[in-house]
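Methods — Computational structure assignment.
A single polypeptide chain was analysed. Its primary sequence is given first, followed by the predicted tertiary structure written as structure tokens.
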Amino acid sequence: MKILSWNVRGLGQPRTVGRLSQKIRDENPSIIFLIETKLSAGRMEKVRKRCGFNNGIDVEAIGRSGGLSMGWKSTCDVTLRSYSVRHIDVEIKDEDTGSTWRCTGFYGNPETSRRMESWNLLRSLDDSPDMPWLVIGDFNEILFAGEKHGGLLRNQRQMDLFRSALEDCALDDLGYSGSWFTWEKGRSEQSNMRIRLDRGIANNIWWSLFPNFTLQHLQHSFSDHCPLLLNTTPNGNGGNRVWHFRFEASWLLEDSCETTVADIWHDSGDDLLEKLSMVLKGLDTWFRKIRREKNLSVNDLNKKLADLNDLQPTDDILGDIVETKLALNLELDRKELYWEQRARSNWLKHGDRNTFYFHRSATQRRKKQSIEAVYY
């Protein structure tokens, strides 16, 4: 099972919703926990369903801050335990293990003077010591001074109170892979600040239930927080997909499509069926190459962004990070246009793109777009 946790810093813009939808489609989580949605419960419900999660709960933002949402796929057996403006707590009946365990999405109070309220909330949630328990989210605090670079030194007492709360609840940090920080601010060497504010923690029973779990800090191109992706069964196999040829209307947007068809047609024999067969095979090969190049472009940009984030921030490095994020956004825009063209729909207006509607519409058209046989 995959769980995606992300402080998205507001979902009021269609472009931001499009970025979220793309990340969800790429990672395919079963459960999402979103923080700082800055939306009413009603608007957030629409966004959540648009992303493919019809089941879930949305906590209202207070004014222009806060707001939580947790969604889960219909294939998941999830029961809501409790929620507040700082947490959403659910029970999950896991099909892989046959066990029931808790997943708590957590949002620590951003006000330092009220941080103790968050730790007391965490203690109050520790009411089932015999159940596997995972807590994931933005805690707005660090455990050790080394988890913050730049800015003022963290107050030692703040960190001690956070560690004390985890000890009282018998929760341990899960670690991570990827860039060491989860939050960044400042685009110059003098002002840059990086902190590990987001994390996953769990009790020993949960660790024993999922000994091979992974937790990744994913690359991203919006929000000052990075997404966390927890995978309880990283060795799971999603099955092999069978490739069926179908002509995509978006191919006509590629400059090389027309010349590729013309070259294959002229190089084939005189028989019409043979020509059609050669064009089909040739386009299949051509599209695989185009798709591979586009995927490599996005993967290369993500890798470049990860490498840049690992370097000591200087003005040049931070400038490269901004340029790489802009390039990544451009590639994601192209992918959104692909889905819009593939769905053959004019429903999308005013920039509200890459929604669940288009993916569903494109899927429903697959049977109509394929050629089952040619009779002569």
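Note: The CA atoms of residues 55 and 85 lie 19 Å apart.
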